[in-house]
């Protein structure tokens, strides 16, 4: 009972809104509800037959007029335009004339085609005919660079639309590299903190924690100042003669790695220090007294005991890196943007919530796969420790 408020808080404030947002990746109700009669009249229609008949045009004009009066014609035009680029204003203008009663001539089909020849495109009618269900796989397939073929099968998207798999792979790769760099840098740093005398250990620990007290935005902007062409790094390189011209360090993959490692490194260090402080120093001294070199003793005695902290730190850093948005946006180049930047783009710029939700689903699946991988590695590590 004591945990009930916490459970309700998580359900209401976190799980329910996230589930509602992710559901938009398969939601097609805005199209199916606003084009009900048109879609129904296209039941049994085959694109090979050419344009649909008079009944379908009558249903279209009626549906668009109702959508216009309900203020949803812009949404209908936007959703159709997402599936077939260049049709938004055609839908909106047709809806406006339909609501104004301008299509009162018969046959209606010829009147609509005379006013808006764009409706003579069979692919547009095929797109509308696919909106029968309130649910769609359009966004999920698009987020995997796939699409529905005219016969209903799944095929690869055209090259100019197939961009999301590369973005997903780039996001995973950048997160992986940042995690590896954090692990390599944090291991000796955490060891130094644990091995140092108490006063020096506290000072080193405070230096690690200090960046966490500064805003993420400020920490990221600082790197733009440091790495720019007239910044202190380029000035130092020019001063010592390592280069004869300023280097382009910012807005590159290099600057992105540095900024993300600087931000996420404290999390890896904290995880390692918490584990290292529970390892008795006598273990290393015993290995050294038996003749092992320091490196051999650290690799065969200390490192296996540190692995739980290393795995925990890697999991935290990798998961945080996957969802990074501010740092790649500010210090990364055009080819360094991660999936979160595209989720923000579709949410804030194009209002394509379905695609934003579909990309979020991909990100969530990567997180789930990563969690399973780390959990499996930790379980194997515990089993190995128990049998050794």
Descriptive report:
The protein has 19 helices and two strands. It has a two-stranded antiparallel sheet. The protein starts with a helix and ends with a helix. It has about 400 residues and is mainly alpha-helical. About 70% of the residues lie in helices and about 0% in strands.
**What is the terminal-to-terminal distance?**
42 Å
Largest sheet: 2 strands, antiparallel
Number of strand elements: 2
Figure out the total of helices: 19
Kindly name the structural category.
Answer: mainly alpha
Concise structural overview:
With 388 residues, the chain is mainly α. The chain has 19 helices and 2 strands.
Q: Could you list some keywords that capture this structure?
A:
mainly alpha; 388 residues; two-stranded antiparallel sheet; elongated; single chain
């Amino acid at each position: 009972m004591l945990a009930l408020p916490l459970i309700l808080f998580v359900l209401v404030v976190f799980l329910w809104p996230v589930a509602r947002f992710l559901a938009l990746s398969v939601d097609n109700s805005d199209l199916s509800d606003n084009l009900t009669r048109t879609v129904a009249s296209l039941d049994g229609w085959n694109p090979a037959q050419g344009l649909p008949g008079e009944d379908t045009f009558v249903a279209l004009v009626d549906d668009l007029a109702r959508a216009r009066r309900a203020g949803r014609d812009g949404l209908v035009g936007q959703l159709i335009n997402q599936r077939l680029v260049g049709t938004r204003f055609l839908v909106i203008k047709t809806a406006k004339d339909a609501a104004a009663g301008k299509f009162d001539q018969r046959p209606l089909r010829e009147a609509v085609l005379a006013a808006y020849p764009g409706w003579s495109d069979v692919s547009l009618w095929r797109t509308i005919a696919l909106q029968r269900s309130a649910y769609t796989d359009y966004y999920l397939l698009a987020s995997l660079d796939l699409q529905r073929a005219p016969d209903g099968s799944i095929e690869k998207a055209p090259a100019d639309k197939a961009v999301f798999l590369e973005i997903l792979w780039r996001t995973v790769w950048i997160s992986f590299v940042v995690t590896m760099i954090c692990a390599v840098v944090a291991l000796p740093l955490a060891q130094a903190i644990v091995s140092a005398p108490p006063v020096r250990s506290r000072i080193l620990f405070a230096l690690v924690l200090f960046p966490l007290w500064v805003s993420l935005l400020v920490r990221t902007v600082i790197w733009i100042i440091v790495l720019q062409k007239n910044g202190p790094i380029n000035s130092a390189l020019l001063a010592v003669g390592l280069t004869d011209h300023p280097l382009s360090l910012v807005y590159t993959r290099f600057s992105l790695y540095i900024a993300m490692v600087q931000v996420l490194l404290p999390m890896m260090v904290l995880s390692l220090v918490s584990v290292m402080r529970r390892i008795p120093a006598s273990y290393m001294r015993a290995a050294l007294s038996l003749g092992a070199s320091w490196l051999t003793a650290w690799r065969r005695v200390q490192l296996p005991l540190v692995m739980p902290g290393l795995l925990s730190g890697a999991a935290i850093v990798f998961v945080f890196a996957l969802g990074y948005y501010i740092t790649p946006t500010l210090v990364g180049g055009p080819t360094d943007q991660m999936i979160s930047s595209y989720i923000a783009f579709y949410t804030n710029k194009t209002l394509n919530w379905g695609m934003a939700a579909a990309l979020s689903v991909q990100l969530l699946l990567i997180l789930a796969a990563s969690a399973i991988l780390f959990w499996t590695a930790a379980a194997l590590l515990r089993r190995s420790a128990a049998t050794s």
